């Protein structure tokens, strides 16, 4: 027999990409999902392949030290039937000298970049030829993959969707900000694989790390650690919360993960400055979706950061409502983390499903700044001993808050305050731009029998709310929305629910604040020493907050914290109320001109009105959208924008992908920062 000579081959990147739902990663490389067959074509010259005579076998290898026993190398012959347990190769059809072969990995294979080698032998003669590389991802469509998700709409949202909404603002005023996850954009896959190869566990033991890359629990833990740089591990983002961001990007300015991941790679894996919780969570979500693990960003309002682990957050206020330095535990207005969907074969049955992963550096876990994966089910059931980090997340959604009012003589009065922590836990709905409330997945209804059982299991005594009802009630209300550039009113509403007259002191104070709970200077206050309430009377006391006074100290989080203290003279009892007021930015208007079609030019008209009484200088628009724009488009306006005038520009772009897309815009200037807007565009496929 003459030798069988392999002349050319075709990895069929385009066809395999379509079938494996990875086509948007481009057809330059083969990207496939585990457990699902993919087809390659081999062209032989000299003579045709003969089944009985010629033996064909493949070698697949991943990582720097591939070993069969670690699952990072496999050698398998072309057979007539697929092998259910391991890698397999089956001849699909033969057409003269060309041979179509279907290859398939087991649904538990390690993910990562593989090299593929073909070995041909006839009798005793054999040759081997390296025919290319491919990347293997997790497969949420495969019933035996540990990340299998049943619902197709959910698979589309949590693995394939490159854009989403992240919830911010305040519990009483929930806002959404658009985010470009961009997990299929150019180079993002290779950056995500680089992130896995930069992690300290890989550098310590490459063989062990690569062999564990079949496990989404392991991958989730690595990603949660690598998105922050707090362990000197060359992580992606540096966190900063002090409003000094001049030597980097303000966390409020980002509108997507692509820019961040590309900067990290471009500057030799130096941490990108700066991130805050939603930025850490969104970048982790991009990496997880890119690797094929269903993931979403969730927001918890009034999130407790319990430093001493006793599930009680002690806050100390002086008589003017100012926080005392003794307040170590923080309550964040909101805090974002990621949930990823996976089975937990490492735990007892019942904990599969959504797992919380928190890449924001807060506490060390096993010596590293990472958190999770923690089964959301375990948080709800109070199973604090399971892996990983459940007590920390349990506290974020369940801790009690006690406000102590420190009088002038140093004595402390425990104020009454209703349960506030862990409210409106939110994520984007599947297939729609509305908010889905998932609080019920983290906790049982407040005051229910089940809630009491869970707290008993978690050794947490929940204060009953009724003991506090001393007959005096205090609430802070807002007349209507508070707009940036305008004055607004807040009201302390006091209620005497007894049949005796009460004489009180009311202290109302407003301060600019950051979303992690720290406060700035005062921007409004009222101290009424003599408020008399007749039996059953309700009074409303207004406090006007002026733009003049909050303008200078308003942080980029646009929050003002209002504290009210009501002290009854006769008993000395104190009632506290706290409310965060969100200062609304102006709206960015986006008009799309032209017929939205793939590979055809479109124009976006983007504008915003300056609501402030002073001109805006150094105005910049940043626009991006996966599948729409070619990377980020930046437009710097040459002229200042006068009060009530319009900042506007036109952007030409050529969408390269069809389907529902989001065009996202960020606006920056000297006095107005982090203003966001987006527009949904449905791009028709090229005829």
TrEMBL record:
GO CC annotations on file: chromosome; cytosol; mitochondrion; nucleus; plasma membrane
Main location: membrane
Keywords of this entry: Acyltransferase, Calcium, Cell membrane, Chromosome, Cytoplasm, Extracellular matrix, GTP-binding, Hydrolase, Membrane, Metal-binding, Mitochondrion, Nucleotide-binding, Nucleus, Protease, Secreted, Transferase
Biological processes per GO annotation: proteolysis
KW Nucleotide-binding (keyword) present: yes
GO molecular function, one term: peptidase activity
Positions of Ca(2+) binding: 398, 400, 446, 451
Residues forming the catalytic site: 277, 335, 358
Domain called Transglutaminase-like: residue spans: 269-361
Family: Belongs to the transglutaminase superfamily. Transglutaminase family.
Protein name: Protein-glutamine gamma-glutamyltransferase 2
Source organism of the structure: Nipponia nippon (Crested ibis)
């Amino acid at each position: 027999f003459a030798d069988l000579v392999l002349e050319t081959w075709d990895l069929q990147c385009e066809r395999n990409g379509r079938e494996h739902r990875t086509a948007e990663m481009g057809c330059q490389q083969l990207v496939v999902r585990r457990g699902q067959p993919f087809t390659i074509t081999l062209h032989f010259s000299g003579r045709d392949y003969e089944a009985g005579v010629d033996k064909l076998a493949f070698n697949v290898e991943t990582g720097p030290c591939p070993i069969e026993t670690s699952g990072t190398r496999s050698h398998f012959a072309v057979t007539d039937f697929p092998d259910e347990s391991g890698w397999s190769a089956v001849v699909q059809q033969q057409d003269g000298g060309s041979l179509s072969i279907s290859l398939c990995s087991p649904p538990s294979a390690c993910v990562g970049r593989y090299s593929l080698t073909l070995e041909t032998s006839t009798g005793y003669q054999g040759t081997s030829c390296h025919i290319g590389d491919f990347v293997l991802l997790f497969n949420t469509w495969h019933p035996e993959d540990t990340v299998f998700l049943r619902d197709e709409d959910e698979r589309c949202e949590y693995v394939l969707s490159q854009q989403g909404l992240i919830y911010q603002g305040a519990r009483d005023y929930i806002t959404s900000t658009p985010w470009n996850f961009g997990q299929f954009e150019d180079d993002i896959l290779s950056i995500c694989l680089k992130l896995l190869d930069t992690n300290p566990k890989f550098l310590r033991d490459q063989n062990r790390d690569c062999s564990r890359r079949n496990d989404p629990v392991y991958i989730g833990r690595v990603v949660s650690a690598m998105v922050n740089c707090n362990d000197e591990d060359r992580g992606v983002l540096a966190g900063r919360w002090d409003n000094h961001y001049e030597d980097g990007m303000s966390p409020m300015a980002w509108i997507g993960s692509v820019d961040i991941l590309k900067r990290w790679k471009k500057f030799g894996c130096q941490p990108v400055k700066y991130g805050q919780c939603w930025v850490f969570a969104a970048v982790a979500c991009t990496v997880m979706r890119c690797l094929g693990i269903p993931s979403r960003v969730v927001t918890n309002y009034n999130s407790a950061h319990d430093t001493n682990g006793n599930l009680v957050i002690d806050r100390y206020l002086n008589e003017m409502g100012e926080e005392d330095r003794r307040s170590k535990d923080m309550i964040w207005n909101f805090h974002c983390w990621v949930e990823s969907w996976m089975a937990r074969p490492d735990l007892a049955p019942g904990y599969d499903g959504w797992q919380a992963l928190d890449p924001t550096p807060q506490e060390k876990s096993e010596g590293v700044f990472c958190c999770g994966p923690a089964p959301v089910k375990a948080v709800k059931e109070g199973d604090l001993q399971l892996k990983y980090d459940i007590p920390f997340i349990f506290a974020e959604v369940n801790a009690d808050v006690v406000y102590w009012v420190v009088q002038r003589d140093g004595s402390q009065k425990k104020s009454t305050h209703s349960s506030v922590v862990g409210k409106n836990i939110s994520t984007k709905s599947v297939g729609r731009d509305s908010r889905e409330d998932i609080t019920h997945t983290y906790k049982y209804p407040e005051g229910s029998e089940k809630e009491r059982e869970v707290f008993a299991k978690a050794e947490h005594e929940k204060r009953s709310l009724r003991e506090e009802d001393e007959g005096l009630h205090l609430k802070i209300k807002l007349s209507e929305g508070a707009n940036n550039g305008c004055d607004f009113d807040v009201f302390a509403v006091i209620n005497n629910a007894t049949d005796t007259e009460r004489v009180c002191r009311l202290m109302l104070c407003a301060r600019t604040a950051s979303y992690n709970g720290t406060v700035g200077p005062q921007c409004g206050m009222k101290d009424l020493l003599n408020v008399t309430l007749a039996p059953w009377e309700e009074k409303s006391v207004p406090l006007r907050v002026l733009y003049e006074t909050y303008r200078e100290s308003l942080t980029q989080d646009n929050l003002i914290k209002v504290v009210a203290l009501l002290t009854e003279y006769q008993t000395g009892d104190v009632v506290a109320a706290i409310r965060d007021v969100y200062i609304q930015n102006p709206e960015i208007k986006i008009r799309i001109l032209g017929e939205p079609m793939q590979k055809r030019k479109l124009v976006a008209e983007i504008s915003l009105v300056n609501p402030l009484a002073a001109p805006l200088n150094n105005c910049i628009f940043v626009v991006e959208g996966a599948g729409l724009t070619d990377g980020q488009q930046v437009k710097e306006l040459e002229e200042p924008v006068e009060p009530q005038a319009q900042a506007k520009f036109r952007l030409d772009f050529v969408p390269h992908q069809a389907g529902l897309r989001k065009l996202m815009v960020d606006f920056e200037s000297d006095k107005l920062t982090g203003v966001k807007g987006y527009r949904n565009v449905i791009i028709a496929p090229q005829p």
